[in-house]
Amino acid sequence: MTKTPGIHPELDFFTFDPKEEALIKQFSKVFFITFAKAARFKEGNYTFAFGKPSDELTERFHIEREVLILISPYRNFEARVLDFVDKTIFEFQNRLDKLLIILVSADEKIEDKITNIVLQDQESRIIIPFCYDEFLKTDASKLIEGKLQKFFFTRDLFSFNSPLRSENYFFGRSEAINYFYDKYRTGENSGLFGLRKIGKTSALYAIRRLLEVREEPSVFIDCQDPALHMRRWNEALEYIIKNTAKQLNSKKISKLKINKGYDLLNASSYFEEDLISLYKEKESKRILIIFDEIENITFEISSSDHWTSSNDFIHFWQAIRST
Fold first, then answer.
1. How many Å apart are CA 170 and CA 164, to the nearest integer?
2. CA–CA separation, 238 vs 270, rounded Å?
3. CA atoms within 13 A of residue 101's CA, in its CB half-sphere
4. CA-CA-CA-CA torsion sign (303, 304, 310, 316)
5. What is the H or E stretch that residue 316 is in?
6. What H or E segment, with its residue span, contains residue 70?
7. Nearest 5 degrees, angle CA 171-CA 61-CA 103?
8. DSSP state, 117?
9. Are 105 and 138 in contact (CB under 8 A)?
10. Least buried of 2, 199, 281, 291, by fewest C-beta within 10 Å?
11. How far is CA 95 from CA 54, 85, 188, 189, 223, in A?
């Protein structure tokens, strides 16, 4: 189906501020405007529209979904505007592009402020900033396409050195995430293995985000932390319970066996008792415990001798499996 610029014939701008209506119509020269609305959020007023990219924009910038076009009338840009962006994209997640937004602001320094945000937060969305006054100085089509060229192609989507903690840049792994989620739902253990820097930890964060959305409890254990791998197997079990209680905001910490100390003979049974106690506190919802970087507690390759050459690895996983 051919996508050409324009405005949906049923859109009504009757209640809109004339200046904001004019700005939306400027974007209709390169997008097909399918939706427009005025809204109030956190004591702020916003006007926003959805723009479906033309065939030309799709070909040049690989934009398939509708793009959020947000108009902020305030002379001083504030971060709460981006909270409104997050809220709107979540509400219309089946329609809107999650990565790209267009922001039109009355703040004359909006471009500098957005550039600073991107420098500080590598995972921020790609924000294409416009100032109201720019549309008075040049042709709208050239202005919009020029800004897309400038801000879209200056971001390296594969430049991340750390795991992704948000959904903004997480592409193409939904099937894998659903696979692991299904394993969790049926009570099965599962593992994710692969070469370095291919996104394993990012995938684990994504699984955890999925559980958070569905209000299902999960715990993240980073095995490369010396606070874990420097401990013996029985102490490691105690460490996991302490972190589980903390991450789940447990109110029963004082009643757990961790206050007695996990000695070698009782560590496994204490671990089971404490885990059951936390499980009941969470209304018997299954708790997913995620271990990242498990080579740090693995025989022959851990940097800690007791994991490398002793039986700690065996006792640790026997305790977890039996529980």
1. 7
2. 9
3. 27
4. negative
5. helix 312-322
6. strand 66-72
7. 85
8. H
9. no
10. 2
11. 15, 14, 34, 35, 39
Q: Minimal CA–CA distance to 144: which of 315, 302, 25, 301?
A: 25
Q: Are 13 and 36 in contact (CB under 8 A)?
A: yes
The answer for residues whose C-beta is within 8 angstroms of residue 247's C-beta and 6 or more apart is 219, 220
Amino acid at residue number 213: V
Cα 172 to Cα 187: distance, rounded to the nearest angstrom: 25
Query: For residue range 17-53, what is the model confidence (pLDDT) as tens digits?
Result: 888 889 999 999 989 999 998 888 877 888 999 999 8
Q: What is the pTM of this model?
A: 0.53
Rounded CA separation 67/49 (Å): 8
- Rounded CA-CA distance 306/299 in Å is 9
Q: What is the pLDDT of residues 178-188, one digit of tens each?
A: 788 888 888 89
Helix (H, G, I), strand (E, B) or coil at 52: strand
Q: Residue ranges of the chain with pLDDT lower than 70? A: 1-2, 120-124, 153-174, 213
How many other CB atoms are there within 10 angstroms of residue 222's CB atom?
16
Helix (H) or strand (E) holding 144: helix 140-152
Instruction: Give the C-alpha separation, 79 to 84, whole Å.
Output: 9
pLDDT at 294: 93
